[in-house]
Amino acid sequence: QVQLVESGGGLVQPGGSLRLSCAASGSIFGIYTMAWYRQAPGNQRELVAALTRGGSTNYAGSVKGRFTISRDDAKNTVYLQMNSLKFEDTAVYYCNADVASGRGLINYWGQGTQVTVSS
User: Fold this and answer.
1) Of 31, 56, 92, 99, which residue is most buried, by most CB within 10 angstroms?
2) pLDDT of 102-112, one tens digit each?
3) Distance CA 14, CA 33 (A)
4) Contacts of 89 (CB under 8 A, 6+ apart)
């Protein structure tokens, strides 16, 4: 059984920073693309940033230059450094990963972590 567990969310003022972490655990053979999505109330879930095993990145236009995705494959962990946070970044942030395990290659979601940008 593979699990993704996020941490690092919280309340921050506009212009502040947060760093989200997502650790994958279980019987893992390898992890391919790792990504962060977010969902604000009343909105659809949207891709924030993705990072392939080979190092290619993809960012939503609204976060380019402010957010940085990175990963530590030795720890099966993906990070999202969020700088210059804005009110509109408020959302539940979800980790997503394509994980190869004894069950095959499966896409997994974390449970989500709340990020609130407020003064």
Assistant:
1) 99
2) 889 999 999 99
3) 30
4) 38, 63, 82, 115, 117
